[in-house]
Specification:
Layout: H1 3-9, H2 12-35, E1 44-51, H3 56-70, E2 75-84, E3 86-87, H4 89-103, E4 108-117, H5 119-124, E5 129-132, E6 137-139, H6 167-189, H7 197-200, E7 205-207, H8 208-214, E8 219-220, H9 223-233, E9 240-244, E10 254-257, E11 262-265, E12 275-277, E13 282-283, H10 299-311, H11 320-323
Parallel strand pairs: 1-2, 1-9, 2-4, 4-5, 4-6, 5-8
Antiparallel strand pairs: 3-13, 6-7, 10-11, 11-12
Helix pairs in contact: 3-4
Length: 343
């Protein structure tokens, strides 16, 4: 039968149905090319927040989140939202390793908000690119630690080095920690740095506008722009953003630099168990508040209190000059923070 007669044999309703079916087939061929990415497994950019002092709790959370990201087929890229002046060396290294493993599997972009210095810079260095705002602060590649001093070994039959200290050994330990930091940064960004290893080790900080010229950062851009770049690198045409919070609530701990040492305070009303000395730290000192002392924890105050106790046969000393502390008001059974800020 001729083609014309076949067409005439169909009713008008049948002809309309054929047209609809043909349109559906054509749509099925072309729609996935435009909208199919929303149904792809990797259609999510995970934004992992790394904020506050770098400590074990923050490292635990960051490691957990990045491990989950690597095992989640729906996540195709990561953006690290960074705002930290640094903290503990071990915690910084743990996050560095976790970011490094993640960047081996998918695009990772670091987006610096206010600051990413010292241990914070260490942690984000393996990212594919570092985005900064013009007024962001980055850098401070180095160790924060007091100058070593010697003390005599403890008297007794065993463990004489447990309480004694050797100045030469302390210097060597500090140098090892400093070199580990600098070496890792040179391995990650040595090709980007527009300065020598010795200049990097000066531990200077830079504003974002300067950092993109000396290699400490790659692009000026916001968090949204960093997310968009991560999605593009993962070949996502459309994507969702999954924000993951890490670290402790309430802005704790607080890092404080005293005349004697750097400490982490884990309470707004700290007791003895809420203050942790940090003999070594990857911290930008300029971002840490400086107070004169934390009472009852300064070494001189402790020694004076011991001497006063010995002189009175164990009775409470009442002379301020004898014990080197202020007169008790009944509340000094917990440490308090001096409010006098040093220049």
């Amino acid at each position: 039968m001729p083609a014309k007669k076949y067409i005439e044999a169909f009713s008008m309703r049948q002809q309309v149905a054929i047209v609809v079916v043909a349109a559906a087939v054509v749509a099925g061929l072309f729609v996935p090319a435009v909208y199919g990415t929303t149904n792809e497994p990797a259609d999510t950019v995970a934004v992992v927040e790394v904020e506050g002092p770098v400590n074990a709790a923050l490292a635990d959370d960051v490691e957990t989140e990045l491990t989950e990201v690597r095992n989640n087929d729906s996540v195709g890229a990561v953006v690290l939202k960074i705002d930290t002046s640094g903290g503990q060396p071990v915690a910084s290294e743990r996050m560095y390793k976790s970011v490094q493993r993640t960047s081996d599997e998918m695009p990772v972009i670091a987006s610096v908000q206010d600051i990413s210095a010292s241990g914070g810079y260490y942690a984000m260095a393996p990212a594919d690119d570092i985005y900064v705002l013009p007024t962001s602060t980055v850098g401070s590649i180095g160790l924060n630690a007091p100058a070593p001093s010697s003390s005599p070994p403890a008297e007794g039959p065993s463990g004489p080095d447990k309480t004694g200290s050797n100045e030469i050994e302390q210097w060597a330990q500090q140098q090892t920690l400093a070199d580990t930091f600098v070496d890792a940064m040179m391995a990650e960004r040595g090709d980007e740095f527009e300065m020598s290893r010795e200049e990097v080790a000066h531990a200077d900080v830079y504003l974002g506008t300067e950092a993109i010229h000396n290699g400490f950062a790659d692009e000026i851009g916001s968090l949204d722009e960093a997310v968009h770049e991560a999605a593009e690198r993962a070949n996502m045409r459309t994507y969702e953003v999954d924000t993951r919070e890490t670290g402790m609530d309430g802005g704790l701990p607080i890092l404080i630099q005293t005349d004697d040492e750097l400490v982490a305070v884990y309470s707004n009303d700290p007791g003895y168990a809420d203050i942790e000395p940090m003999p070594f730290a990857y911290v930008y000192d300029g971002a840490v508040p400086h107070i004169d002392t934390i009472e009852r924890f300064a070494a001189d105050d402790v020694e004076a209190a011991v001497d006063a106790t010995d002189a009175t046969g164990g009775e409470d000393a009442t002379d301020d000059e004898a014990n080197g502390t202020e007169e008790s008001d009944g509340t000094d059974d917990v440490p308090s923070l001096s409010r006098e800020v040093s220049p």
